[in-house]
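User: Sorry, folds how?
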Amino acid sequence: MPLLPTFRAAARCRPLGCALAVVALALAGCATSPTGRSQFIAVSDAQMERLGATSFERMKQSDRLSRDGRKLATAQCVVSALKEALPASAQRLDWEVQVFADDNPNAFALPGGKIGVNTGMWTVAATPDELAAVLAHELAHVISRHAAERVSQQMAAGVALEAAQAYSGSRTTPENTRLLMGALGLGAQVGVMLPFSRVHETEADVLGQRLMAEAGFDPEGAVRLRAGMIAKAGRSGRPPQILSTHPDPQNRIVALQARVAELRPVAEQARASGRRPACRM
């Protein structure tokens, strides 16, 4: 049964019909994350890729892109290395990386192979390993389909028609466009704070740190990056946006550090097999 018609039917059905529509939606939305966690996903990967591409184009038109070619080359180099460790389904995508002229240290990855990095990330990421840590974390959100989970929740909450319009590229209300972009993880950029859940963040930490190791980066870079963010927050008196919506930073550092010993051999094996990132800051 097509999913969007199911949402429309649920919106106008009688009690018995609603129950049947909800059951059909639930059956259609069963999925499993890379860590084995059950997920409710009621949108296809193709729909999410279209939504990601559309949102990215809007951002490129509305936000200022950096003219720093060196930063762009570094980000592209790191993503190219990480791409080699992604699942085959993700490697097939036409990956695009852009650097935005924004002092807030933040980064994001969207379904469909779209990645944005703010120039502010260079104030906390001093090495390619540290930049790889944040980008691998964002890529982990994508391969775990976290945005699809949140869009599905938004649709189930009553924005099915607006979501359908967004997917097809037709007109939708500005508020629902912002909500959907927020569900993609663009909350800081569009002014709608829809932080990923603690479950999502923990999953992205675990998968992202392993991803960077499998690409040949030093997994301790993730520890240094988080420590740098905390230090920056202490100097400015205000945490970076990427920290203010995430779980306790100190607890995350402890967990990331605990996995370093396990992941170092993974990184060494990756380098021995030829995965030797040669990115420069």
